[in-house]
Amino acid sequence: MHRRKPRGLEWRSSSFFILSTVTISVFTDLFLYGLVVPVLPFLLQDRVHLEPAQIQSHVSGLLATYAAASLIFSPPATLIADRGSSRQLPFLLGLTALLLATLLLLVGQTVAVLVVARVLQGISAAVVWTVGFVLVLDTVGPGNLGRTLGSIFGFVSIGELVSPVCGGILYKKAGYVGVFALGSALLLVDFMMWLLLIEKKSAAAYTREDEGVIGNNLDSAEDAREGIFNSSEQDPLVAKDDDDEEYKVASNQPKWVEAFPVLYCLKNPRLFTAFVLNMLQATLLATFHATIPTTALELYGFDSLKSGLLFIVLLVPCLLVGPISGWTVDRFGPKPAAVIGYGYLVPVLILLRPVHRDGTSQIIQYCLLLALCGLGLGVIGSPPLVDASHVFQRYHKRNPNFFGANGPYAQLYGVKNMVFSAGLTLGSLMSGPLKERVGYGNMNLVLAALCLIASVFSFIYVGEKPTILRKIRP
């Protein structure tokens, strides 16, 4: 039976509109996350009326709640993205959860209500990041995935950059209503875009003509999905190891391996290290998020606006160095960036130890050190995901049917999101108690030690095996 074609089918199912919708969704998620971070200490102090000694632990706890919810809900989000027939419905449910969270943060007067709001935010983040990027893959195919994601992250980074400042300004000038009214407005725009969106495979079913045109696009995406694993240009590192059988998976695997093949791949030390580094990156970010506002308040008496500006100091160098780091990873592989990036962070984090109250000079010193930390964070962002994708490509090339018809991408993004959320949880839970027990400086000394260990493991396991270890091992 011929179904009537919806109005605006062409533009509603166009790649531009679909990619714009996903971009706005990810932008909104990060914007709302950054909007809340500098406001939390003041919200707990002014509205919940906590004692100053309790604020750091509650800020860390609320940040950890968000990350833990995202971690727990990432597996079902991955299953939905990998096996579901539609991306639109789960995404709309995720946005609904985010809208409810925003409203609860606006009206919440108790810690319990704020916890529920953060849980809903975490659930939404799991859906947005996992389902959203699988929809991007469906739309452009793996052959154009890297370039497309680069464009999306370039725009999304603006939200990450300006949201802490917007949160600080709005809180100071308009209070809680101003902060969360802006968030709600963005969400409503995002929600309307998703209601208008028509996925390409859904659009193909309306008319024979549309099916031919759009179906060809989908076929091209499928061809690219296969071609990316057969082209040495996509991953020069893969071509070097084409003759080894390390990535061959034996037949007759247990049921749990067939259901979640990514778990089988984690026995590979290179992949395991990539995910651990991804978790450490998130741990560092969560630690900065949890401690910068409270440290600025305790040492320098900063309000929400000035605390928000400190995140600009941290993020601008990160955003400037990120593309350069990505280029070096493409050109030289992920090992140099990972080793140098984590090694560089060791002395910079140690230099944060002597930060104390002493007027303008100490504020300037603190800002400079945060900027130097931002440079390091920009360097370590690319290597883990790139190296993990290399390993997944090798497994997929050796075992074309191992990951199912949709390939490894949904599972890669799902596990990446889980690991990153685990790092956010760990950083949020660890930083508050550690700062209170051993002090802000010694907390950064612990982070420096973790970065030193990460640099050593990056040298051993990230990318190709070092020549010196090849000589030692038979």
Helix content: over 70%
- Oligomer class: single chain
N-to-C SSE string, H for helix and E for strand: HHHHHHHHHHHHHHHHHHHH
- Low-confidence spans: pLDDT under 50, at least 5 residues? 210-243
By DSSP (H or I, 4+ residues per run), the number of helices equals: 20
DSSP strand content: under 5%
The total strand number stands at 0
Question: pLDDT average, as an integer?
Answer: 80
Q: What would you say this structure looks like, in words?
A:
It is built from 20 helices and no strands. The N and C termini lie far apart (66 Å). Helix 4 runs parallel beside helix 6 and helix 13 (269-300) packs antiparallel against helix 16. The chain is mainly α and 474 residues long. 49% of the residues are buried.
What topology emerges from the helices and strands here?
Blueprint (H helix, E strand, L loop, with lengths): L8 H4 L2 H22 L3 H7 L5 H32 L4 H20 L3 H30 L4 H52 L3 H4 L4 H20 L8 H5 L14 H5 L1 H5 L3 H32 L3 H29 L1 H18 L7 H22 L2 H16 L10 H30 L1 H22 L5 H6 L2
Helix pairs in contact: 2-6, 2-7, 3-4, 4-6, 4-13, 4-18, 5-6, 5-7, 6-18, 7-14, 13-14, 13-16, 13-17, 13-18, 13-19, 14-15, 14-16, 15-16, 15-17, 15-19, 18-19
Q: Quick gist of this model?
A:
The protein has 474 residues and is mostly helical. The chain has helices at 9-12, 15-36, 40-46, 52-83, 88-107, 111-140, 145-196, 200-203, 208-227, 236-240, 255-259, 261-265, 269-300, 304-332, 334-351, 359-380, 383-398, 409-438, 440-461, 467-472.
